[in-house]
Amino acid sequence: MAGRPVIALICMPDQAGLDDYLERRGYDVHAAGEEWAADSLLARHAADVAVIGDGLPAGASLDFLRRHAGQEGPSFVVATGRGELIDRVLALELGAADVVAADVGHRELVARIAGLLARRGRGARDLLVLENSTVDLKAALVMHRSGGEEQLSAGQVALLRLFAASPRKVLSRDDIMAAAPAESADAFDRSIDSRIVRLRRKLDTESIVTIRGTGYRFDPPAAR
């Protein structure tokens, strides 16, 4: 199956915010606010993952799983505000791949969705884990431990891909300019040193090491 992974949001109270969060990470999102609309949505779109929110009553959620969960359908995540163990167990027994609290944060929910997609062989994320942040290279996003996020420029993504492809290898300034040339936004300042300083600051990392008189080296944190 080609193209962007498809996510269906069913009766999610915070649908608008989640829509944007998912789309910025490279997913196609379709939403339905009512059960009848959700049946139609899944019939029209080959969703990879469907998230059922607590806008759908408990009994209706279970009936919906009975109708749609199965080998050929999407992987289902049930977001519920009901804490009863029996409700969670029934959802899993009826085919839900995951059950989460209704107030789960967007970042955790998207991480769970990404895990389900990876098991289906869809939408593997391209992540670079640093000391104080994680970089989603596909989405060009820096996700800080504090919970904040920042967008990366195309030039910064190119720099990070170059470093990630050459761990512990010293790269000269010429190597860097050839593989990750300055973009138009940096035209007034094409200094590699300035670009590296800005990138380190944005990532809050010391993993990009200056080798005096030679260039730069990326030391992955896990190897240090």
Protein architecture, described:
The chain folds into 2 domains: 6-119, Rossmann fold (3-Layer(aba) Sandwich); 127-223, Arc Repressor Mutant, subunit A (Orthogonal Bundle). It has helices at 15-23, 35-44, 58-68, 85-93, 106-119, 154-165, 173-179, 192-203, and strands spanning 6-10, 28-32, 49-52, 75-80, 98-101, 127-129, 133-136, 141-144, 149-151, 170-172, 208-211, 215-218. The strands form 3 sheets. Strands 2-1-3-4-5 form a 5-stranded parallel beta sheet, sandwiched between helices. The longest helix is centred in the middle third of the chain and has 14 residues, at 106-119. Residues 185-189 have low confidence and may be disordered. Helices cover 38% and strands 22% of the residues. The protein is α/β, with parallel strands linked by helices and 224 residues long. Strand 11 and strand 12 form a beta hairpin. The chain is elongated and about 70 Å long.
